[in-house]
Each structure stands twice: as C-alpha cells, then as structure tokens.
C-alpha cells in the first residue's frame, strides 16, 4: 500500500485506524454470535394504503417499467453523512419511513397479464439487506456495517412488513436494464424519477444510450412520472391524515416546550436558539426530526421570512414568531406558526396587527372548501389584508387597485403565498401541474396550510414608526372535508386572548 505523498487522497481516510486484516481475526469476529430471531415482523398498517398508491400510478403508465429510487446517504462534510431520509415519492409508494433504506430502489415491472389485485405491475424493492457476520461489511463498513450503524432489515423482513417483493441491490442493474429500449421496437420503456440517485440515473442513461432511445424524449417522459407521483399526493388517504395528526400533536408539544423555555431564552445571549432547541427536543423525542429548519425570530427578525440563523436575543415587549414542524417517524410533517408576546401580553399596536392577520386567516378558512379554487384561499386573505392596511392609511392606492393584477402594493408587507400543500414534504406536491395546484379545484382529502402574515421591517419608511420591527404570521394546517376546512392545528390557540391565557397557564 503506497504511503506518504504517494498515497491517494481517497485512501487517506483509513489513516486514523485500520481493522486487523488477519484471517484469524476475520474468523474470530465472525464467530460466536447468538442466532438471529427468525420471527418476521407483522404487516405494517401502511402496507395496504401503499399498495393502493402503487396501483394508482400503475394505471397511469401501463406497460412501462417505473424506477423510483430512495436516494443515497448524503455527505454533510468529509466522511460524515446526514441522517438518512428517503425521497418522498419512494416513501409514499413503499410506506417506508425513517432510515429506510439508503440506495434502495423500487422497480415496478409491467406485467403481461394484470395481477390478482388488478395491478398492471409487480413492485420489487431492491436494497442492501443485512449482511452476515462472516462478511467484511459486518465489522468494517462504517456506512452500512451492522457493527457501526446497527442491523439492516433482511429481504424477508421487509417483504413481511410492507408486502412488497424484495431483492438484493446487486440485482438492480439487470432488473432496470433487461430488455429495456424503444417501445416501438419491442423494448420495455423505462421511466425514472431522476436526480434522486445519480448512480441510478447513470444506469438508466447508459442503457438508453446503448439501446438507441431518444434521450431528450426520455427526459420528458421521466418528468411526467415525477409529476404524476407529485399529483398522486394531492389527496391524502386515511393513513396519511393519521400521520399528519401525529406530527401535529408532537408539534403542539414543541410549542408548549417553547413557552416554558421563555425565561431561559430571555436570560441567554442567543435566546432564539433556546427557543429553537426547546422545540427540537420535542421533534427528536416525539418524532423523527424537524420537517424543515425552525424559524425562531424575535422582534425585527420576525420580518425576515426565512430567519433560521436564530441567534438573536429574546426580549420582553417584543413579539416572537416561531414557524416549526415536527416530522413524524413516517416522514409526514406539520408546519405551524404562532406569534406571541415574549412577556405574555400583546401591546395595543401588536394586537392591532395580529388581529388583521387573524381576520385574513378567517377569510382564507372560509374560502378553503371543496369546489373553490386553491387560488381563492390566497385571494381571500389578500383582500382582507389589503382592507386592513387601507384602514390604517398605508395603501397608496385603493383596495381594488391593490388586489388587481396591475397593483399588488399590499404585498410589500406580505410577499409570500398564503397556502401550500403539506405532507411528506413541507411544500408537498411541488411538481404537480399548475392546473392542479394553484389553479386547481379544492377537493376533500387535501391538506394544506393557511398562513397569512404582515411584516413591517424596522427600516420601512412607508409605515408609522410604531409598526416597525413587527412581524406576525399565523399558520394552520387544514384538512378539506365536505363541510370545508377542518383545522388540524386547532389545539394551539389562535386569538390574542387565547394565546395570552395559554401562556399564563403554561407559565404556571
Ligand atoms: N415553514 C415553511 C413554510 O411555512 O412554508
Ligand atoms: Mn408553510
Ligand atoms: Mn411554516
């Protein structure tokens, strides 16, 4: 093995320690382990729902091979990875959540005849199963080895739990490329969710190149699969709604932690971090993680829409805006914002601004019902905010002009959207067609946020001084039912009076 400057850079990661290489060591470390349990796990509750999701996507792409990767481990820095989180389309179609399964790929193989359940595809999950104790992987692989990261499931275990056929990752290449080619010439057309796993992209691209498939056309076809998988998530099934309810319940716990941590936050030079970490403890103890970086913003920082530095102080007399969501172990996330007074009581001007946001939220809730368009929810909130701003003399034009296509002046103080779909991704269904998203009709089973806000920056000369340095957002997550918007986040108070009472109670 070359040493010194002749040693390739890629090998130097092993310089800090090396396992023994002797045959005696390998034999010894591979021996004297208790046998593994042969009991297979029970069928997961999500298995049937995931099968229905696969059947729906199968029906859209008859006769084609569909390839949906989970994605690889991602490097944070040098040889340290982030915790693994599978791609959302993969999680949706398999039901697999936390930690499952780096480098795995779901392949849906078209069937000549429909299966007993009517599906036109057979799904197989390719992954790296638990390696035996007699392999190098067991003790010497810090990314995948059981000694380092704990045991992976076996092929049989995943099959039993999720009801999907399984195969070793080493069989993936043949499964993806066999008979692949131009459909018109008798080949099997392959569609891939691209840019999730670059190794799988390369595998498919090489196969396409070798079989004369038009790469540009294939790219368009791949995009249609990604789009369809995103649109499949526009309506949540019962399992998904239950997952979201759990994520929301954990998020409520996180907000309660925050209120209890306020004395410590006020005493610390980076009080916003105290708030952020009070929430994070609920995220990790009750769920998998935060679904996105927590925004813990006091005073003027609340007017910075993506304030995630969270290194400011927390001061009496100011408003604290917290936008946070727990991601459940199933990978579904909540997305909630509350804006509360650090000292427990809103000042009159803070209350005036808060109430305008609350009124806009109520207008948006009223518009969030089946048959309306998604864009109507935003329009209702915008008109309401424009009316409030006009009543305070802040709009340079009439309300009608402001809300017209030629206006938009009110958006100076509310530049973001009012709603986005919510689910496995905080901004869920992001690849859905415009006609089904912002221009789409609201349907039962949709889950989205309602999150109007007003943000008056400290250097905004277009507003009176007393408004400056105040940012307010109120964000709830709603489930659309036949009756309209059911507020899934109603366990957290919304009005100033309710919030003050809630804070007083938690302060004990
Ligand atoms: N926290 C991200 C959002 O509200 O959209
Ligand atoms: Mn949101
Ligand atoms: Mn949010």
UniProtKB/TrEMBL annotation:
Its cofactor is Mn(2+). The keyword Metal-binding applies. Its EC number is 3.4.11.9. The keyword Protease applies. GO terms for cellular component: cytosol. Keywords: Aminopeptidase, Hydrolase, Manganese, Metal-binding, Protease. It is an enzyme of class 3 (hydrolase). Residues 44-201 form the Aminopeptidase P N-terminal domain. It catalyses: Release of any N-terminal amino acid, including proline, that is linked to proline, even from a dipeptide or tripeptide. One of its GO terms (molecular function) is manganese ion binding. GO terms for biological process: proteolysis. It comes from the Bacteria. Gene3D superfamilies: Creatinase/methionine aminopeptidase superfamily, Creatinase/prolidase N-terminal domain. PANTHER family: XAA-PRO AMINOPEPTIDASE 3 (PTHR43226). Belongs to the peptidase M24B family. This is Xaa-Pro aminopeptidase.
């Amino acid at each position: 093995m070359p040493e010194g400057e002749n040693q390739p850079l890629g090998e130097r990661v092993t310089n800090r320690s090396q396992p023994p290489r002797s045959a005696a060591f390998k034999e010894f470390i591979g021996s004297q382990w208790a046998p593994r349990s042969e009991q297979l796990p029970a069928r997961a509750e999500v298995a049937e729902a995931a099968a229905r999701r696969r059947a729906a996507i199968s029906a859209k792409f008859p006769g084609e091979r569909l390839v949906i990767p989970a994605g690889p481990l991602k490097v944070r820095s040098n040889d340290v990875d982030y915790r693994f989180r599978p791609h959302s389309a993969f999680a949706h179609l398999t039901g697999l959540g936390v930690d499952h399964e780096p480098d795995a790929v779901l392949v849906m193989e078209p069937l000549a005849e429909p299966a007993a359940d009517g599906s036109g595809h057979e799904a197989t999950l390719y992954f790296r199963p638990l390696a035996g104790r007699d392999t190098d992987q067991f003790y010497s692989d810090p990314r995948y080895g059981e000694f380092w990261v704990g045991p992976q499931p076996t092929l049989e275990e995943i099959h039993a739990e999720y009801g999907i056929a399984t195969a070793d990752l080493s069989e993936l290449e043949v499964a993806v490329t066999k008979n692949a080619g131009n459909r018109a010439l008798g080949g099997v057309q392959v569609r891939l969710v691209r840019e999730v796993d670059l190794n799988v992209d390369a595998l498919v691209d090489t196969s396409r190149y070798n079989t004369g498939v038009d790469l540009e056309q294939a790219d368009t076809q791949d995009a249609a699969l990604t789009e369809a998988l995103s649109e499949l998530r526009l309506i949540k099934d019962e399992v998904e709604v239950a997952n979201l309810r759990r994520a929301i319940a954990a998020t409520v716990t996180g907000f309660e932690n925050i209120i209890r941590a306020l004395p410590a936050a006020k005493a610390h030079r980076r009080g916003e971090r105290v708030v952020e970490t009070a929430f994070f403890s609920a995220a990790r103890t009750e769920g998998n993680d935060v679904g996105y970086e927590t925004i813990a913003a006091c005073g003027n920082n609340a007017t910075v829409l993506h304030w995630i530095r969270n290194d400011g102080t927390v001061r009496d007399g100011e408003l604290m805006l917290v936008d946070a969501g727990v991601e459940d172990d199933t990978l579904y996330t909540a997305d909630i914002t509350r804006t509360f007074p650090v000292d427990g009581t809103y000042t009159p001007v803070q209350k005036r601004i808060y109430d305008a946001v609350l009124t806009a939220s109520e207008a948006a809730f009223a518009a969030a019902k089946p048959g309306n368009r998604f864009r109507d929810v935003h329009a209702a909130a915008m008109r309401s905010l424009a009316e409030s701003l006009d009543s305070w003399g802040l709009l340079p034009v009439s309300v009608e002009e402001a809300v017209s296509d030629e206006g938009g002046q009110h958006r100076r103080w509310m530049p973001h959207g009012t709603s986005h779909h919510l689910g496995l991704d905080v901004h869920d269904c992001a690849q859905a067609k415009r006609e089904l998203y912002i221009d789409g009709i609201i349907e039962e089973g949709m889950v989205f946020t309602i999150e109007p806000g007003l943000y008056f920056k400290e250097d905004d000369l277009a507003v009176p001084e007393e408004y400056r340095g105040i940012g307010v957002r109120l964000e709830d997550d709603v489930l659309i039912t036949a009756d309209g918007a059911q507020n899934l986040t109603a366990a957290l108070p919304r009005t100033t009076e309710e919030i003050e009472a809630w804070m007083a109670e938690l302060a004990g």
